[in-house]
Specification:
Distance between the termini: 32 Å
Number of strands: 19
Strand order of the largest sheet: 12-11-8-13-16-17-18-19
Radius of gyration: 25 Å
Shape: elongated
CATH topology of the largest domain: Rossmann fold
Oligomer: single chain
């Protein structure tokens, strides 16, 4: 799924950590997403990677102590004015401590001090250097001053120690920075539950009944919601590969588990978080919670084996014909409390004549606010990177057309916002 950052500009600061080479991949991810990248390097970072490397990747001149110019925009005052966010990755313990004190004794720190937009840092240092009380205090101070701190990994470090201090994965740094660039007031801090993937109904310990759902549409929705700042709970049978690791994911197997966790997640979501706008309001005693959303994308089995078996059933025991007795599963949408919740259902059909009517009927049959209708051709329609959706409400049927699933997710969320205007 390719995130679109066209029209955005990022200031990437690189310090003298052994992981400085990973900043090349970070820059590449932003360039691939369509963003402009402007790099600032400390003198010590140039011992690990050259400015020429970043210039080749970004097609922009790199600001260093030696290249700084006051006859152009390549200086620590002007370079940040064109950027929408500043990310320092890797950020050494030395840089973290200086940033928190407002020290500006190199060109990167000077650029950071002059920058007025959102600031992010991705620490990378020896575990003990990060655990030192001076550094922990500096990180706390940075958080107080609205810096976003992207936590380091725990792994074998370059120095040979094992502990927390390795630079976060470039994709995680990219996701977190992209969220800073793309977040929206409507979705920020709003709690959203998304279900995804086809449930697996156990026959025995090695066999199950399932369907062809790939979970890709649900993942696309989760990613778009994350980038817009939503507090997402993703309940899935397909894992969260390709999604930010910080996105809260609950792994489930069957329809019963999906029902239980969905009900619980909705209960938690309804407790809500106060919006920043409300928290800053002079009307503090009457703060209003942001109404949560449920996107029911999961393909939940209609039936499940009545008597799932322990162990593996032997072929020799079953004979030539095997009859499995099934029982109906509990319908999730019909059995959740939708009060104070905006609910968007997903309906896949193969009946070109009655499919649309079936989708429309879901509005009243299951009491949902909207339905995303998808007419499938056959089993080969599953698992692709594109989809075709019609967004249905009681008032309208909006054809979103055929597009990649991340673009469709963006359009679905745009139309879902209007549900609160009803």
């Amino acid at each position: 799924m390719q995130i679109n950052l066209s029209g955005k500009s990022v200031l990437l600061g690189v310090t003298g950590s052994i992981s400085a080479y990973k900043a090349c991949e970070i820059a590449r991810l932003f360039v691939k997403a369509g963003a402009q990248v402007h790099v600032v390097m400390t003198p010590s970072s140039e011992r690990f990677v050259s400015a020429l490397t970043f210039e080749a990747l970004t097609r922009n001149p790199v600001l260093t102590e030696r290249s700084e110019s006051w006859s152009s925009e390549l200086n620590h005052i002007e370079i940040g004015k064109k950027c929408d966010a500043c990310i320092i990755a890797p950020a050494t313990a030395n840089t973290l401590n200086k940033l928190s004190k407002g020290i500006a004794d190199n060109v990167l720190l000077q650029a950071a001090l002059a920058y007025a937009g959102p600031m992010l840092v991705a620490p990378a240092a020896n575990t003990q250097m990060l655990k030192n009380h001076y550094t922990t205090g500096s990180i706390k101070m940075l958080r107080v001053n609205d810096y976003t701190v992207i936590e380091p990994q725990k792994k074998l470090l370059a120095c040979g120690d094992v502990g927390s201090g390795a630079l976060a994965e470039p994709t995680e740094i990219f996701f977190e920075t992209a969220k800073t660039l793309l977040k929206e007031d409507f979705w920020e801090d709003r709690r959203v539950v998304v279900t995804g993937g086809g449930t697996r109904e156990k026959i025995d310990e090695v066999r199950y009944i399932s369907n062809f759902s790939s979970g890709k549409m649900a993942k696309a929705l989760c990613l778009q919601l994350y980038l817009k700042g939503a507090d997402v709970c993703y309940i899935t049978t397909m894992g969260n590969e390709g999604l930010p690791q910080s996105l809260y994911t609950i792994d489930v197997e069957d329809a019963k588990e999906m029902l239980e966790y969905t009900v619980d997640a909705i209960r938690v979501a309804k407790k809500g978080k106060m919006s920043k706008a409300s928290m800053n309001s002079s009307d503090a005693p009457h703060l209003i919670q942001k109404e949560p959303y449920l996107f029911m994308v999961g393909a939940v089995a209609d039936f499940t084996p009545k008597y799932p078996q322990q162990g593996k059933l032997k072929k020799s025991m079953l004979g030539e014909n095997w009859q499995i007795e099934l029982k109906q599963t509990t319908d999730i949408l019909s059995n959740i409390n939708k009060e104070g919740l905006k609910t968007v259902a997903f309906k896949a059909e193969m009946d070109s004549e009655e499919g649309l009517n079936n989708a429309v009927n879901l509005l009243t049959q299951k009491g949902v606010d909207a339905v995303c209708y998808n007419l499938l051709k056959d089993a080969t329609s599953f698992g692709g990177n594109e989809n075709e959706i019609t967004f249905i409400t009681k008032e309208d049927q909006i054809v979103l057309g055929r597009a990649d699933k991340l673009t469709l997710a963006e359009n679905i969320l745009t139309h879902s916002k209007a549900l609160l205007d009803d």
